[in-house]
Amino acid sequence: MGSLDGKSVVVTGGNSGIGKAIVLAMAAEGASVVVDWVAHEDQTEQLLQQVRDAGGKAVGVEADISKADDLHRMMQKAVDEFGRLDVLVNNAGIETRQSLLDTTEEDYDKVMAINMKSAFFASQAAAKRFIDQGDGGLILNISSVHEDWPMPGNIAYCVSKGGMRMLTRTAGVELGPHGVRMVNIAPGAVDTPINESTTSNKDKLGKLQDAIPLRKLAKPDDIADVVVFLASGRSSYMTSTTVVVDGGIMQGSVGL
């Protein structure tokens, strides 16, 4: 038996990078998973088939996660397909790697819509279903060490992750009496396509690895393993907080 047998899960941004690893790991532990797509339906379908070929359950739903109505529809998809909703993973995220002086209004709005607005309204939609079901629920946010650690030259991303931190702290307090928990997971440097400009450059990669006490970047599976642990029920007294998964980088270096 898997640690997530019988649980119904929604993962935003679940068809690539960390999200894909989360979907595969949760499905392998017995969860039934809903994954969204907008422009890459084929990529999502390949992932869903991979889950099914391994004996798991997963469905896709076309949804623009920057729109509250679509997020509510994602949660309803889990209920319609699997009978209930147990866990939401707010994983979707983008960055522009621009400074305060260079960020346009359009770029800022896009980052905030995908990173912060989607997490806010997906959490709202999930929490309402958890409360209606009457037996609690769990919201996990894939944040970043940059919810707390400045990253000059990537300011909109940092602002969005800082907002996610306060969302978790405040909503965790609001929802606690309903048995609904919210926890952030804050990765450090992860070997995903979003970091390809660093991982493909030997000098940049070496500098980054030297700054990490464990001397290596995380793999997406390293983050997915923490998600599975938090969703398994073995973290039932955790809420309104952040779990940092960074190889010690926040302690080992300043100002990367």
UniProtKB/TrEMBL annotation:
What EC numbers are recorded for this enzyme? 1.1.1.-
One matching Pfam family: adh_short_C2
Task: Keyword check for Oxidoreductase, yes or no.
Answer: yes
SUPFAM superfamilies according to UniProt: NAD(P)-binding Rossmann-fold domains (SSF51735)
* Gene3D superfamilies per the UniProt record, alphabetical: NAD(P)-binding Rossmann-like Domain
Q: Which InterPro entries match?
A: KR_dom, NAD(P)-bd_dom_sf, Sc_DH/Rdtase_CS, SDR_fam
Ketoreductase domain boundaries: 7-188
GO terms, molecular function? oxidoreductase activity
The record's keywords, sorted A to Z, are: Oxidoreductase
Family assignment?
Answer: Belongs to the short-chain dehydrogenases/reductases (SDR) family.
Alphabetical list of PANTHER family matching this protein: OXIDOREDUCTASE, SHORT-CHAIN DEHYDROGENASE/REDUCTASE FAMILY (AFU_ORTHOLOGUE AFUA_5G02870), SHORT-CHAIN DEHYDROGENASE_REDUCTASE FAMILY PROTEIN
The identity of this protein, by name, is: SDR family NAD(P)-dependent oxidoreductase
Lineage, opening ranks: Bacteria, Bacillati, Actinomycetota, Actinomycetes, Micrococcales
